Amino acid sequence: MMNDLQEFHKRIEYLRSNGTKMKEIADWVGMAPSVLSSLYTTVLPAFFDSAKTMPEEEALDQALSLVNNVSKRKLLSGLEDTLNRLDELEPTVLHPQKGIPFIDSLNEEIALSARKISNISGLYTSYSLSSSSDCLKCEPYIIALSENKDHIRIGRLNAYDEVQWGIGVNGDPQNFYCMFSESPVPPLILVTLYLQIPMFKTPRQLRGLYLGLDYNRNPVARRILLIKESESADTEVFLSMKRGLIARKDLTPEQQSYYDYTCQTGDYIKMCTVSSLRMDESDLVKEKKMLAL
Fold first, then answer.
1. 15: phi then psi, degrees, rounded to nearest 5
2. pTM higher than 0.70, yes or no?
């Protein structure tokens, strides 16, 4: 069972990292997109982690309890057929869109960046302010070459055990951009990291800004710090790394310095949706008052 589920996860990971959408994969294997998404982002990573310390059947039951839309019976009974179907599916070939200068430039930078990753590739733990509480958020990141070595692959295992994959662009020697979607299926919920690259070999930490949306889909920016844990870029190790929210009382001295750097006034900027818009300067005053509450 373990080998089949690992192969299932790796095949989906390969297809997605090479441009195949989750809905296309789900339609191909005859599975609801929401079910496939739950398996890929939540159930299987949790299963692989738990199976290290408990029997496989028990680990799978525990992982399945995290979601309410996946049937263990259907998963296991149809697993062999699903693997056969996945073997028949080839990645979507992405052709650069012509006539849009930004898209042309982005595709060119993606290809060029793949040659400039050796200095920062590896496994990282990120630290930033939690949107939901006064805690230090701890999330693993992986920066590595894709399997076909044509782009930089970015992965984030968030504090809630969801995995998101995206791309990295090394625009110049001093700046690195990470882009991925927090949603495994449409609509796109874009997250962008703007990271500074220190001017020396294999830096231990990367600092920058994290831009995304909060729980109410309002723009938010926060300071983020990535601490390198390993030069290796092993996906299984990445999926087993520690993540979650760390309360202030539980911070180690080292984590306290990370908290002080990322979680103070001015390290977190957000907007909010103003009710009864008048589309004049009074809305600006109202928004600032609401954010101060």
1. -65, -45
2. no
